[in-house]
Write a structure and sequence with these properties.
alpha/beta; binds ligand PTJ; single chain; about 55% helix; six-stranded parallel sheet
Length: about 250
């Protein structure tokens, strides 16, 4: 392992994720605001107890089932996602049998190259046969302006179900407006993406993906039993309730 932190350190996982971002930043993969977005995520994860809460587990099952049943599922990845969990996203694409598309908010040719190179290297190391899209954008997401609207016709444009971890609210809304089932992974249950997505998993990206990769595909919860607003409320309750319990424990 090329990482200095000791796995027995109580904050090892957090340090490892930060390290992955530092490495990706050096390779030119990240947006300038990537660390800010990560910091906000870390704060929410602290409040959630750095654990997958039951409603997030149900949402992840529903999401996996929706992706597996879709005709054209696609996994969309940005800079933070490739840095934090590039391998896991490739493994999930392999499990579902769908392409992965690099689609970034702060789009530059240099960042696109760095991200596509990184993913292709990972794919080779993992020995997976996953289609990695994004290099040849020949379509745009309607309702979005500028380079961030660029996508591939055979990927995001035609997708009927799309996984968009750590997404910005505008693009999430634009994808929903296209009639797609939009699956969000976001630690902030109050974010616009969390609210606007069709299915939202309030969980840390890498933890959520590890959970989804372990799931038996035959026994997944279906969309009928998913209540979007209740799922977000449960996450908020876990944050507030968890903190209240912490204070009462401290008093005893
Ligand atoms: O690579 P690009 O150009 O597409 O840009 C990527 C970022 C993430 C910088 C861009 O999409 C952005 O600015 O995102 P936001 O608007 O800051 O939203 C990111 C959301 O992801 C926030 O609500 C965070 O709480 C959440 N988040 C951050 N880290 C994690 C996370 N959610 C789950 N797991 C994380 N590790």
């Amino acid at each position: 392992m090329d990482h200095a932190a000791d796995p027995s350190h109580p904050r090892y996982r957090s340090l490892l994720m930060r390290h992955r971002l530092e490495v990706a930043a050096k390779k030119g993969m990240l947006a300038d605001s990537a660390m800010i977005a990560h910091g906000r995520g870390e704060a929410y994860d602290y409040l959630l107890g750095e654990t997958t809460i039951p409603s997030a587990d149900v949402a992840a099952q529903v999401a996996l089932k929706a992706l597996m049943q879709a005709e054209h599922p696609v996994l969309s990845v940005n800079g933070n996602v490739v840095a934090l969990a590039g391998d896991e996203m490739l493994k999930l694409a392999d499990k579902i049998g769908c392409p992965l598309e690099v689609n970034i908010f702060y789009r530059t040719p240099e960042r696109m190259d760095a991200l596509l190179t990184d993913l292709n290297e990972r794919k080779e190391q993992l020995g997976l046969d996953v289609d990695i899209l994004g290099a040849n954008p020949d379509a745009v997401i309607p309702g979005l302006k500028g380079p961030r609207a660029k996508c591939e016709a055979k990927g995001i444009l035609q997708a009927d179900a799309i996984l968009v971890p750590l997404e910005d609210g505008d693009r999430c809304e634009a994808l929903v407006a296209m009639g797609k089932t939009v699956i969000v992974i976001d630690l902030n249950p109050l974010s616009r993406s969390s609210q606007r997505g069709s299915i939202t998993i309030v969980d840390e990206l890498s933890r959520c993906l590890e959970n989804m990769l372990k799931m038996e595909t035959e026994a997944l919860t279906s969309l009928d039993s998913y209540d979007h607003m209740q799922t977000l409320q449960d996450a908020l309750n876990a944050i507030v309730g968890g903190m209240q319990n912490k204070f009462s424990e401290a008093k005893e």
